[in-house]
């Protein structure tokens, strides 16, 4: 098949660990590559955020990244990108004249808007274009947890559910997301749950490990945004250090350099560490390339992932693939991926005492850590390889394409929807 991926803010080529570059970039890159290994041709459409980027870059065998002009050729926060989505849609639509995809798979709600806009336009002169969509995050969940701190544009409130209702197929990455989508009025029959995967050849238990300075080491990896709950992890580690536990915490992610003083979250965390009285036990390493992460995971007794909410969470998969037990908040994707008592332990989010107590009990029990770590690796091997994720995604694509071809997508989409045309935003409307 020829597959058009649209990932407006998350390019497979981006450096990971910054505010807007994390799991979605990894997902789009790895899924596209794994689909290409299965013989498909993939084109990933993303926004040009640098004037020097070539129009098209070969990313892997069978995978090209196409940079579309949509907004300034400079980094722009994803919450400010909506006005540029019509240009992104038009750019993708124009390229399809040459690429002629069989299907489009959009990632994140604004890419869904672009995909449906381009597909509707394509259908006027051509056959219907099937659209599969993956949300990666839902505005309704973000608002629930972040309230006034949520800087998403107000249009997300109606455009996002509209994407869910109008796309021909939805790939949800976990069961919690599927429940949320049902509540937004998305037809159960259009939803397929397929998790994100992990690179099992890169993230392995055997290999070099970063040297430690304390008896125990716990690790946090991820984009540094408040909802990741790293502040709670720092407080829990400080509490244990004050009780005399000889442990250290390494935090990976955030500003480009560890000594970057311009990253507000890194500064906030530095402040929490200093006030906790355990700053000497806490090392903020800044953003690191994926190539360096296995060495770090292997050096840890435990990986702590305690976000307030988590649409999926690839970091726990990476930890489990390296054979390290995960202490995870029982939220979102972590409910499916980390099995309480088998590959790690669940804790309530934002609960310093609960996290400290579970960490303490696991640090005290090496046999239990070994058991959880070995189970984690086995779980990743059996269910979370990108090859398996790509095979399941391909099955979903084929059934959507067959359904759309059978019904005529334009007709099917129009019939499933009240006639408000909300997703096909017009340039004038979007620029308001
Ligand atoms: N990551 C990285 N370097 C960093 C921080 C994060 O390579 O400094 C990677 C991490 O290994 C994982 C991804 O970014 O593959 C984060 O994905 P996850 O789904 O855990 O979180 P998200 O960013 O989607 O919220």
Number of helices: 16
- Please tell me what the overall shape is: globular
Topology order in helix (H) and strand (E) letters? EHEEEHEHEHHEHEEHEHEHEHEHEHHHHH
Q: Which band does the percent of strand residues land in?
A: 15-25%
Strand ordering within the main sheet: 3-4-2-1-5-6-7-8
- Structural class category: alpha/beta
Largest sheet: 8 strands, mixed
Gyration radius, in Å: 22 Å
SS elements, strand count? 14
Low-pLDDT regions: 414-432
**Distinct ligand kinds:** uridine-5'-diphosphate
Task: Looking at this protein, list some descriptive labels.
single chain; 432 residues; alpha/beta; 16% strand; binds uridine-5'-diphosphate
What would you note in describing this structure?
It is built from 16 helices and 14 strands. With 432 residues, the protein is of the alpha/beta class. The strands form two sheets. Strands 3-4-2-1-5-6-7-8 form an eight-stranded mixed sheet, sandwiched between helices. A six-stranded parallel sheet has the order 11-10-9-12-13-14, with helices on both faces. Mean pLDDT is 92; it is low at 414-432. Uridine-5'-diphosphate (UDP) binds at residues 16-17, 22-24, 26, 221-223, 252-253, 287-288, 290, 293, 312-315, 318.
């Amino acid at each position: 098949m020829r597959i058009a991926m649209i990932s407006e803010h998350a390019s497979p080529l981006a450096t990971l660990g910054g505010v807007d570059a994390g799991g979605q970039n990894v997902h789009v890159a790895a899924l596209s590559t794994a689909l290409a290994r299965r013989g498909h041709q993939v084109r990933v459409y993303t926004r040009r955020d640098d004037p020097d980027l070539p129009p098209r870059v070969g990313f892997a065998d069978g995978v090209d990244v196409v940079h579309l002009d949509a907004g300034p050729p400079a980094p722009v926060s994803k919450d400010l990108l909506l006005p540029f989505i019509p240009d992104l849609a038009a750019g993708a639509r124009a390229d399809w004249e040459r690429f002629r995809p069989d299907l489009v798979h959009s990632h994140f709600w604004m890419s869904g808007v672009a995909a449906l806009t381009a597909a509707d336009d394509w259908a006027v002169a051509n056959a219907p274009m099937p659209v599969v969509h993956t949300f990666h995050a839902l505005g309704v969940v973000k608002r629930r947890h972040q309230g006034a701190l949520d800087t998403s544009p107000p249009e997300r409130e109606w455009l996002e559910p509209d994407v869910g209702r109008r796309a021909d197929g939805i790939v949800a990455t976990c069961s919690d997301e599927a429940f949320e989508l049902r509540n937004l009025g998305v037809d159960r029959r259009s939803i397929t749950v397929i998790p994100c995967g992990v690179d099992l050849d890169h993230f392995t238990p055997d290999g070099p490990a970063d040297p430690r300075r304390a008896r125990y080491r716990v690790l946090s990896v991820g984009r540094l945004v408040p909802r990741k709950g790293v502040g709670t992890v720092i407080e829990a580690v400080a509490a244990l250090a004050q009780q005399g536990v000889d442990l250290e915490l390494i935090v990976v992610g955030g500003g480009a350099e560890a000594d970057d003083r311009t990253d507000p979250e890194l500064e906030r965390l530095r402040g929490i560490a200093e006030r906790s009285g355990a700053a000497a036990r806490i090392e903020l390493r800044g953003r690191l390339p994926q190539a360096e992460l296995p060495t770090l995971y292997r050096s840890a007794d435990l990986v702590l992932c305690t976000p307030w909410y988590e649409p999926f969470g690839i970091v726990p998969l990476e930890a489990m693939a390296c054979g390290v037990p995960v202490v995870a908040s029982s939220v979102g994707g972590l409910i499916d991926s980390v099995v309480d008592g088998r590959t790690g332990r669940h804790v309530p989010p934002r609960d310093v005492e609960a996290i400290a107590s579970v960490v303490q009990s696991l640090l005290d029990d090496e046999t239990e850590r070994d058991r959880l770590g070995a189970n984690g690796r086995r779980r990743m091997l059996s269910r979370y390889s990108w090859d398996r994720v790509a095979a399941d995604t391909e099955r979903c694509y084929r059934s959507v394409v067959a359904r759309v071809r059978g019904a005529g997508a334009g007709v099917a989409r129009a019939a499933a929807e009240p006639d408000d045309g909300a997703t096909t935003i017009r340039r004038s409307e979007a620029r308001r």
